[in-house]
Structures
1.
Amino acid sequence: MRNSVLKPILALTALSLLTTACATGGGKKKDLAYVARDVNSLYTAAKTRLDQHRYKEAAQLFDETERQHPYSVWARRAQLMGAFSYYLAGDYTESIASAQRFLAVHPGNKDAPYAYYLIALDYYEQISDVTRDQKITQQALDALGELIRRYPSTDYAADARLKVDLVNDHLAGKEMEVGRFYQRRGQWLAATIRFRKVVDEYQTTTHVPEALERLTECYLSLGVREEAKKAAAVLGSNYPGSVWYQRAYKLMQEYPVPAATPAS
């Protein structure tokens, strides 16, 4: 789910890191041969690779800067730039590890919000379609929430709030996909639980109107007409012009009312 809107924020932060330091450090990569170099040479080489879009090489050189010069005042910057380079290379696992290592060593640093932002983006970029397991999606939501909680006034948090809405919509879509599966199999109660979750937990998503209509269907199939009537009423109150309300209304009109039980 890579979003080009992210690039200005990432680029500006990366630029600030690059321009405030001529040297930095980071890393544990074993496939880069050890050649002792001064911090300026290593950092400059890493920056050059980054400018050339050779992101994996840049990340390894930023890591090497930290490894060879761990006590340099710029080591923490190379650590973040390594995480940023791994992100651009699509190596999200390494990017997360680098950013988390930075936070473990420098939890109160002024660049900590950026590290949290990178971690959230690394998870966000891995979100898969709704037919697959959504563990990564939940991790993305948790990481975005952590960023918003810790640094609510930052530009990173503002972007994270937009992404939370998209992630919630994605998770709701997964519930709908599973609910429809149960519905096709005539497993009305199981389907109801999924559609109910969308209505209760993902109220601001685009899936709510359909969830309410399908709840109407399921409740009618279960023989609990009053619950179906409530679902249809909520749908009509909140989404009166939607095709889902038209379907629910038609169902309520066509579905037979249970005959009254004769008095004994």
Note: Residues 42 and 223 are 72 Å apart (CA to CA).
2.
Amino acid sequence: MTFIHPLYSLAGVFVGLLVGLTGVGGGSLMTPLLVLAFGFHPATAVGTDLLYASATKAAGTMVHGHRGTVDWKVVRRLATGSVPATLVMLLALGEAHRRAADTGELIATILGGALIVTAIAVFFRKNIVARLAPAFSAIDDARIARLTILLGAILGVLVSLTSVGAGALGMTALLVLYPRLPVARLVGSDIAHAVPLTLIAGVGQWWIGSVDVSLLASLLVGSIPGIIVGSLIATRVSERVLVPILAITLAIVGTKLLF
């Protein structure tokens, strides 16, 4: 029987609100919150968050697809790299689970590092894009396609292990690789790619036994209204204030997980 825990739903509201305000993926916020604040095993936090993310991103994809702000060529390129990489990583995690190996410490360490890199990507995104995008704009499309597939593979490994990366890191890389595409289409493409990526990884984690169904239901109950409210008030909140606070928070949490 699935039990809705009010405290976890409140956490869902908090994370959903921040996602709606900043656009940063829930994995960067929810997974460390589950590990550090609620004491969940890192594998359970990652597995549950992946299915949580796939549900929320599916809703976002429908909106972007209806508006025509998804570049399916970019999505296919990303998925070409991410899907095989995700499957390989899930097989490795399944083998570790079969041998009763505790991957919690490894996941927590990689998660901590990913959060610090995400914090850098969030805080310095404009500078990174401004410095690198001009160089990539001169590269031919075939090479961009190969780099996009490589990006997908990196995201597949990272997201399968930590549930972090598909949002802030993926979006920053896409802005560099595709400087001529409208930002709205890149945002839509990033969200659309996250659906199969997080769904496959989440189902795989479920198969391994790293998903808490009651926790998942509790998070969704809170996060859906949180995302709606955050999206509605996003234009009223200063990005200059919110982005540095978010980046610093991610860096602190990442450091805590590492040390």
Note: The mean pLDDT is 87.
3.
Amino acid sequence: MATTIFSTQMLEFRGGRLFHDVDGGREVTVGPEPLVIGRDPACGLVVDESGVSAMHAELTATASGVRLRDLGSKNGTWVGDLRVSEALLTKSTAFWVARTQLRFEVARTQKVELPEIERFGPLYGTSAAMRDVFRRLERAAPTELTVLVQGETGTGKELVAAALHDASKRKGGPFVVVDCGAIAPTLAEATLFGHEKGAFTGATTTRLSPFIEANGGTIFLDELGELPLDVQPKLLRALAERRVKRVGSNTYEDFDARVVAATRRDLEAAVNQGAFRSDLYFRLAQVRTHVPALRQRLDDVPGLIKVILADLGAKDAWRRVSRATLDRLLRYDWPGNVRELRNAVAVALALADDGEQLDIAGAVGLKAAPAKGKPVDVTANRGYHDAKREALHHFERAYFAQLVDATDGNIAEISRRTGLQRTHVRKYLRLHGLRELRGA
């Protein structure tokens, strides 16, 4: 793991104490690790009262205060008379989960030292957000704890899993990837646990379970949120007992693999909706880490471009990236995250002539900004209808990009928020090259 020394950087957070004033009272500390409140016995603060969801809300200490986030609960999280999906608690206050009151008391600002590195395995970042991810990974890597990696599509969740594997005592073993999002529901059990020849139509050979293939190493369950509900208890049992049984067999096989899972879904909300088992969630989330979106760490963009160019064998091409290009890239919201940046760099490099500047901004459809002191008068440069059409195009893309981001691409939810039919939503997403993920 390459290491670069920086001046010591500290992560500040304003945490506190959370009180549940029943049965003699209970209190828990609120720090930078998410604290889940809910009815499930595995929650950080168990509130087993009427109306409270299995995983109701979450508190996390940040530099600005304590972030209170509702986890898709049925009866809501309330601050005063306001039902909130997310709120920042900056002073001692009371809030409600369903009809149960909790008291939060703010504490003094605390500091956590961030690692003085810019790389963790294949991951890169000098921003505080990424170095905090590195801090969490450094602590988790030497353990056998299961890790749940959360983040948007394109943020590099598989790279996080690979980095954990490479920094663990299992680095000499296999790293096996299972894409749960690509598994047909009817074949999920056979894909996860293996099958005997002839166990079902199409099973022409015996297949080992990827858990067995990962013996001595790490198994990475990508897009775990897509796993069918009926297979989840079988996965939970396999993880608890450290053994699997092939479809069509009566014999269990022990496995010795570290488990890392990832999802772009809001699994906490899925638990409350009955789409994901809470016991499986807590089995997998012994350690949680969230990979920030690229728009949340834009100061990493120049360094990422250097890293990507080096990976493409064109390290010296960094000199062909202009300041104007960087300025445009730093104002972009990057809906496709690091994956989109990597593709843009690769396209710009491939299309540029030798010695020509790399038009990375153009590769993601960003037009050059007008020269300073010369604002563009659209009516003077093109006809009214052309100018209106271009402005509408930019508005539509920004509008639907934000909706896709806010709903994780849920077509049904975008339809509800916009008042448009789902067929029209899909048309706009296709028109603007935005991701259509679920909610058909």
Note: The mean pLDDT is 88.
